Amino acid sequence: MTTGLPTQTQVIELLGEEFARAGYEIEDVVIDPRARPPRITVIADGDTALDLDTIATLSRSASTLLDGLDSHPYLLEVSSPGVERPLTSEKHFRRARGRKVELSLADGSQLTGRVGQTRDDAVALVVRDGRDWVVRDVPLAGIVKAVVQVEFSPPPRAELELAGVYAKRSDHSDEEERG
Length: 179
Description:
The protein is an alpha+beta fold and 179 residues long. It has helices at 8-21, 52-67, 90-95, 157-162; strands at 24-32, 39-46, 75-79, 100-105, 110-119, 122-129, 132-139, 143-148. 23% of the residues lie in helices and 34% in strands.
């Protein structure tokens, strides 16, 4: 049965270069022909956060490119992966720098901490050690599952500094610690 909509592969091929120019890559494309109107969701991620202005710009570009196809009407959504997405690759950990994560390790233990720098196939994780914060290098190969945790209050500055990220300033810019 044909849906009259582009395929996932067509969407990725058509939009991939445009998203890459903007500094993002397409993580997934979900096509729901049963929705009314049918829905095409493009999930993108990059080393910088996908803000509302960028989403609007990418949506306009994607819409223009997809409108060139001879397809049925559809609703287009562009979004980021969301916090429930598990971290499964080095780039996911790099992009989650400064975020709190819960890890399940290959030895069966659990570890919760803040993502620091990712290098040499390991992630630096800021964890509690008594009353202090310490940095523990965790090999990526030893991580079975990693999920970003939702936080409702700002983390302590000392924890963010160990992760290599300063707290957000009032002008909404992020600064990274350079060492």
